[in-house]
Design goal:
Length: 246
């Protein structure tokens, strides 16, 4: 029994992994979340959070006001939320080489290569903070990053734009597709998955058509939107499960 926790800016999701199945424990307000009040028995805990980790140490959290304390005496793993999402994407799609993007308040990236999470020196990915042009100020302190055009904090009337599909006509969406195309040429993933409050509501067909215009046909991966609000929590539990095996 492994607990999976997704700590977001507003809400915290908790799931329990029992053998191969997930049970949703609940969604809590992050500022009120108290792990000691979760009344379930577990052997290990995985925590996904929108924090940059380098060599296991938090080194930044551009879109999180504060990092809550999680106190437990059980084995635990704490990992960037988009990396947890990528790991879950690999398991749920059965693919070994996966590029994942989460679009919510910010844009997260996760990479799975050969079935393993690829982290580089800890921060690998982060397409949201790759330079796409201009001098717009980013939450991370940089300029002209993809997030400045396509992060939830940067898109005006995002809900409406998703509903009437105007989002696909924005400069931000074009830049998003260019960043994905460049990442595909670097990594040659079998599949690109999308998640998050905005990313989980995008149309994978539209993304596929737009990105395909930018890359040679032979590089074209599958594109899939993972419509599961608990994907990060589930991915963190799966990472913790692998930690126990070692
Ligand atoms: Zn940035």
């Amino acid at each position: 029994m492994i607990l999976g926790v997704d700590i977001g800016g507003t809400n915290t999701d908790v799931v329990l992994l029992k053998n191969e199945d997930f049970e949703v424990i609940g969604t809590f307000k992050t500022r009120e979340f108290d792990l000691s009040k979760i009344d379930v028995d577990y052997e290990a805990i995985g925590i996904g959070i929108a924090v940059w980790f380098k060599k296991g140490k938090p080194v930044g959290a551009p879109n999180l006001e504060r990092i809550p304390k999680i106190e437990t005496d059980k084995p635990r793993i704490v990992e960037n939320d988009a990396k947890c999402f990528a790991y879950y994407s690999a398991k749920v799609t059965g693919k070994n080489n996966v590029l994942s993007l989460t679009v919510g308040t910010g844009i997260g990236t996760g990479i799975v290569l050969g079935g393993k999470l690829y982290k580089g020196d800890g921060l690998a990915g982060e397409l949201g903070h790759s330079y796409v042009g201009g001098r717009r100020k980013c939450k991370c302190g940089g300029y002209g990053h993809l997030e400045c055009y396509f992060g939830g904090w940067a898109i005006k009337d995002v809900k409406e734009k998703l509903e009437n599909e105007a989002i696909y006509d924005t400069k931000g969406f074009k830049l998003f597709c260019i960043a994905i195309a460049n990442a595909i040429m670097l990594l040659n993933p079998e599949i690109v998955t999308f998640g998050g409050r905005i990313g989980g509501r995008l149309n994978e067909q539209v993304i596929s058509e737009e990105v395909s215009k930018l890359i040679p046909e032979v590089f074209k991966p599958e594109f899939r939107v993972i419509k599961d609000d608990y994907a990060v929590a589930k991915g963190s539990a799966l990472l913790a499960k692998d930690l126990l095996k070692v």
